[in-house]
Amino acid sequence: MTIAEQIAAYTPVNEQEARDRALLFSWLESGQDIYTRNPVAHLTASAWVVSPDRQQVLMIYHNLYNSWSWMGGHADGNRDLLQVARQEVMEESGLKTLKLLSPDLFSLEILTVDGHIKRGSYVSSHLHLNVTYLFEADTEQALAIKPDENSGVAWFPVAQLSRRVSEPWFLKWIYSKLCDKVVHSGL
Predict the structure, then answer these.
(1) In terms of pTM, does the model score above 0.85?
(2) Residues 46 and 72: beta-carbon distance below 8 Å
(3) Which of 17, 25, 44, 95 lies at a 20 to 30 A Cα distance from 7?
(4) pLDDT digits (tens, 9 = 90+) for 123-158
């Protein structure tokens, strides 16, 4: 199924998702190459990784954002965004085994990225046209940081996220939504 088909099949759970879904369709229909890192907006895939009992979430301490964060990355030409999400989790956390809880999109969002320095060069502010997939992993698996991107990998009880995440917008609009969806998804 193409990403356009996945987005078409996705039912938004709130106004943020409904509006962002409409914008994602606009970008997909624009004719611009959003599968590669154009300077304005491009596709990314994230993963929400939960423990088998759904009481913990795996997060990385993201060096760029100086906050505990979910995992994910750029499509960089890959049209299989589920594969992108899975690969990013394994690279960023060191996990060897992941269980996909559903092949369907779990969430979607358009994320703003402030201008920053990466590998010695300035990257202008831009948009991440993001889709999220839901995974499960065993909390006993060994974890490893990816030094060029993060300086920590840890499981956190869902109730502690508000004390760990230092990005208020992400906590309110994304991570809280994802936690609620896990509870109500039945997965």
Answers:
(1) yes
(2) yes
(3) 95
(4) 889 999 999 999 999 999 999 999 999 999 999 999
